[in-house]
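Dear V.,

Thank you for sending over the compound details. I've combined the ligand you provided, copper (II) ion, with the protein sequence from our construct and run the structure prediction for the complex. I'm sharing the raw inputs here so there's no ambiguity about protonation or stereochemistry in the SMILES, which I know was a concern on your side last time.
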Amino acid sequence: MRIFLVQAAAVLLALLSASVSWAHFGVIIPSDDIVSKGDDKNIHLRLMFIHPFEGQYMEMARPKAFGVMINGRKQDLLPALKKKTVKGFSTWEADYRVKSPGDHVFYVEPAPYWEPAEETFIIHYSKVVVDALGMETGWDAEVGLKTEIVPLTRPYGLWAGNVFQGIVKVDGRPVPYAEVEVEYFNEDGKIKPPAEPYVTQVVKADADGVFTYAMPAAGWWGFAALNTADFRLKRKGREYPVEIGAVIWVRTREMR
Ligand SMILES: [Cu+2]
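Below is the predicted structure of the protein with copper (II) ion bound, written out as structure tokens.
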């Protein structure tokens, strides 16, 4: 009887969650994506694990790695992280002061997130590029994350309507026909989806792992390429699969 009840509850939960989008995104969003000479040199970064379109938060434990890569050199920024609770969930923040010109690739490797509904762990390796002081070099450099989107489109200075193109890589190698989820950071909830499929856009990479998406509005756009890791993680004595996501955030502006 008890087993039956547990099964019935599981089925009910699955039915209820069928209407909920499961597109979680690792988020790393800076206060500015282009730091010009006259601008404030301080960048405020927000790190979250959310459903960007719907504004639903999830718990984000202290990340395993957080840093910035400038001109091929990495700097650990983990000590700068501060916890901030939003809607009852942990998010993280950091301030970074721009000192040198060149593209700043900020990246985060979160701690594995346990997703009970899917019986899987999730790790979204996320990054964002901030251009600084007029030296537009380094945006296409690979950080060397387990999985990573390597931009083919310069990921800043983009208009709404521009396409974004990138290569999906796992262990440094392109992933043919990788699935990429795309979401708009609908921060104030202004955009209402006419139907469920509008929340998360889905594109697939081609045979060379290259994907393309045209961003229809101004704001921040997240691209998450999802794959299954070649390793498993333990929980309470059992091993579970790990979903690894390569995420990149890019900003578009209205042309006027
Ligand atoms: Cu979620």
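A first observation: The chain has a mean pLDDT of 93.

Warm regards,
I. M.
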